Every structure is written in C-alpha cells, then in structure tokens.
C-alpha cells in the first residue's frame, strides 16, 4: 500500500494535520494524482543536488502533462483548470530554484510519515502535545486579528491627518485673506465676524491636532503591547518548533504567518512615522500657544523608531539551520572542509530592501564562550538578501558553499583535529547585516542553533546525540557551555524523540511496546515514564551492562541497518525489532510451530535475527534463534530472500525451512513475497548449463541444530551451493552425510 493510501485512511484529526502543510507551493491534487511516482523518487537527495532537482522538476512537469492529456480526454473541466494552474506554477516558481520544490516535497513526505507514526501510537507524546496546544493556536489567531486591527487604525489615522491638513489649509487661506485687507476694512463688523469664525476654526484645529496625536499614540501603544507580549511569544514558539523539527519532530510551520504580521506592523509603523512627519510640516506653517505637536511629536517619534529597531532585530531569523547536503537528516553537525548550507530570512518583506541588505557569516564570533579550538569559514561568506531566489518571494539569502576549517594553534599544529575530536563542544555560526531605510540605520545580528564540529564521519553518531540532547533539553538558542553540566531529560520526552528518529529517518516510528523495551534498556527496570529523569551519561557515554558500547551507539547502528538493508520490511511493520529474549518467548510459546518474529540483536551492533517456535516429539515447546545477520552478510543477500530460502539441517532429517508464519499468524510468503528479489528457481539438473557453460548457482542460507541444542549451532549462512548439487545431495546421500558435507 502506498504511503498516500495509508494517509487517506487516517482519522479526521490526522487528516486535518495533513491538510495544513499542502498549499499552493505543492498542491494536494498533484500529490494525489502522482502518488506512486512521487514516492518512488529521491526528493531528499534532490533537495541538496541542483542537477538532480532540475531533472526531477522536469520529470514532474512531464507527469503533470500526461495527467493533463488524460483528463482532457475525460473532459473534466475543473481538473483541467487546476492542472494547467499547477503546471504554470511549477514552471514559473521553481524553474530558477528547483531544489526548493524538492525540499517542499521531501518535507511533505516526511511529515506524512510522522503523522502515520503518530496515528499508530496509542497516546500522543508530551512534546508534540505541547506544540499543538490549543492555547497557542488561539494566540496565533489573536495576533493576526490584532495586527489587522492596528493596520486599519493606522489607515484611519491617515484620513484624520488628511482632514487636519485640509482644515489647516482652509484656515491659512482665510487668515491670509484677512491679513491682506486694509486697516479700515479690518474694523468692519463683517471682518470681526470672520475673526470669530477663524478663532473657532483654530479651536477645531487644536482639538483635531490633539485627537490625531492621541490616535497615533494609541496605535503606537497597541503595537508596543503586541510586540512585547503575543508576537514575542509567537516568535519564541516558532523557534522552539524549529528546534524540535530539527531533531525529527513535527514539521514546523507558521513562518509565513509571522512574516505577514511583522511586515504589516512595519508598514504601520512607517505609516505612523509619515503621519508624524506630516504633523511637523503642519507645525512649520502654523503654531500657537498650547500647540500639542511640539510637545508630543518628539516623544512619539522616538517611540516609533525604538519599535522599528526592535521589530527589525527580531525579524532577522535563521529559516533553515546549518546542514551538510550529504546528511540532510542530521542538521547542525558539520564536518571540517565539507560544504554546508544555511538559509536566513528577514520577516519584514519590503520591496525597497530587495538586494539592499548584505549578510556576512562568521563562526564563533564570541570566542570567549567556546573551546580552545578555533574555526574560520571558507567560501562565499557575504551575500545579498533578495526576493528572487525564494519561491514565495520572501526576502531571504541562502549560503550554499560555506566550509568550516580549523585554524592552526600557536604551536603550529592543528588543535584537536582528528578521530578523537570532542563531540560535546558546541559552536555558533553568526550572521550580521545593516538595514538603511527612510533615514534609519539598523544593525542586525542573529545566530544559528549550536553546531557540533567533526573531522571524521565516524564521529557523526555521537555528534548527533549531542544535538538531540541539547535541543530536547533547552529553549536557550546559544548556551555553548551546555555540556559542561548537561541536565537530565524526562524519559517520556526522550522516548518520543527516539520514535521521531525512526519516523523521520526510516519512515516508521515506534509503538508503545517497542518504546517500553527501550525504556527498560535505558533504565534497567520498569519505570514511570513521566517521572523518571535520565542522565546524558546514561544515554550516550556509559556502556550498556556487559556490553562494549553505549545505548545510543547500539540504537544508531540499528537505524543504519534499517535504512540500508531492511527498509521496506520495516515500513510494512513486519519487523518487531525491539523485543527482549524473554518477551519473545512469551509471545511465541502458544503459537503454531514455525511461527517466527524478527528482532534486533542486543549483543551485536547493527544485527537482526529471527526466532521461531518448534515442538518436540514429547510435546515440549522449544525455541531457536539464528546468529544475527549484520550489514556485511545482508549486503550479499537481501533479508527477505534469506527468510524465503533459509534451511535447517536437524540430525537425521532432510534440510527444511522452519519459518512458516510471521508472528502472530501471517503466512511468510504473504508478508514478504513482494520483497523477494526473485522467485526461487526450479532445481536444475546436473546437465543444465548456464551462461558460458557453467551450472547456475544460488546462495542458500543453512544452519544445523544438534540434538542437545535449542540454538542453531555455528550457522554457515550463505553457503555457495548450486541447485543441481543440492538436488544430487538429497538424492544420493543420507541426511547425516549431508550434515557432514555442510560442516
């Protein structure tokens, strides 16, 4: 079943989540019509490879054209209209930046997998629940409502200023008319009446000036309150959601909404600033005793400028955290002399700023806060923000060719460069720029989340563990001394993040039973998830009892095994994986002989084994577990083929496959048939000849079990034995002789 088919079967509450991340950037119609083709492409790799992204974009347009031809024959007018619109969108918006559509589709597919994993969980995790808090959603709506109200108020004040300007021009005209009359004319009753009218008009002017200043003051106060409270909280929440998304959590959205709010507030503040400038012009033409403009205007202007400074400073954000293209699902881990990408955005989108803001990138700017190791950035580290590279026309800049390089120490040799580089050292990439607009000059600075520098890819697992622990444990975006005294983490939150590693990296999260097993492995006992605090050392530094490796190294090896060798089986849910030997026997003991399950080895790194139940002649139940298969052996033969062809040689018995039913009762071929690399060949006769005169051969995984053992004894997997030789052995030799030959 395709991933999209699974999505369509979700409950309505999960479908609503899916609906949130499909928009005009990637319409749901295309996801639906091209579901299988989209899922068969490697969008993740294309998101970091421009040539590959361009090819995929062109193929996507071809697929849309084919659908357009089909619906044209069916005369489906609505679908024809939508597909033409989508085709125009793909050609116009992404032709200059094909990697952007690859990023969007990759993120959508990843978020679908996360939601499918969440739907299979009996209870929503605490972190995800906090991110989807109804109070947060209500605040978002309130912010948008208040920003809209502020914009309307500023526009209404514009009309008041225009009325004031017209009123003053009329007053000025009538006043100058009287001033031009002869002295005798000024004493007439008509003129005296006009003077009284002018005095009344002046009183109205004074009232209107005070009213306009009061309205401007209220707009400024509303903006100040919104920025100080709800908007600041919204921005902090977005940054927290970005942290969580970086370690595999829900895809963070809301930046476009924030940009809309920031931009409208900036436009309102500049509008108020122009209104104050207009009042200054009116002041130069007319002033009087008790005039409120010279008293209030300077204070209001100072407050407007202060708010603009703060608004711009908060609007400069890292939209996409530093990430190596070679490891897109391991952001914030950077390898020396390897390029990484990072994207920034200014949330105040004003056309006047296009190509006017040059951003400079540096590393460890505040060197006093980091370790003795020093780095510099090689490559293009100064670029201009623009609206042309972004598909949405956002004011952004993406650095694609930065490389960190470690500086030599004073002794002339490199610092800790080498295989033992400390993966708990945190570093910071900073960005600075200057905005000059309407007489204002504002210096802006922002920084990435802390990054870990490695010099060898073998250090990546532990570096990624540091990134997980940091972003799980703290909201502080710049605590570079975090690992001097790392805090504990709540076990329930950690388990949720571990499930995210599986849903984001290998397409299927962990269920409650699998998480229970991991919890017991971490703590050595059954505990209350919500109360138990786990230390950083227990997670990543201390060896598991009786083992030569840590919990995290063991788990990372399993992730790598799934990704490279058993991914389809894992996604289908046929790998129970995380189950102890004791638990597997409880599950299998009452099952039909030949029932088996797949679990990850607890003693071997990156190993998977299978255990099946059997029944002795006296009725007793026995269990057999094969020696774990690691990536070396799985590179020679697909795991599904091993399950199909596996043979056991018991004493006095012919070789047979003991694996009949996948737990609980799924026929083996029904579960794994679609994953077999090919159907098993008929046994060849000795006279059969393959290419170049050779008898065709296959690999047959074989184990033997001694009478007094319940475990396969020294399994000789992947024995090279041709079908014809195997047939001859069965025809001419006894089972004992075959066993001797295999040994």
UniProtKB/TrEMBL annotation:
GO cellular component terms listed in the entry, alphabetical order: cytoplasm; nucleoplasm
Transcription recorded as keyword: yes
A biological process from GO: defense response to virus
InterPro entries hit by this protein: p53-like_TF_DNA-bd_sf (IPR008967), SH2 (IPR000980), SH2_dom_sf (IPR036860), STAT (IPR001217), STAT4_CC (IPR046991), STAT4_DBD (IPR029839), STAT4_SH2 (IPR035856), STAT_linker (IPR048988)
Subcellular location: Cytoplasm; Nucleus
Ranges where the SH2 domain occurs: 570-672
Family: Belongs to the transcription factor STAT family.
Record protein name field: Signal transducer and activator of transcription
Organism of derivation: Rhagologus leucostigma
Taxonomy of the source species: Eukaryota, Metazoa, Chordata, Craniata, Vertebrata
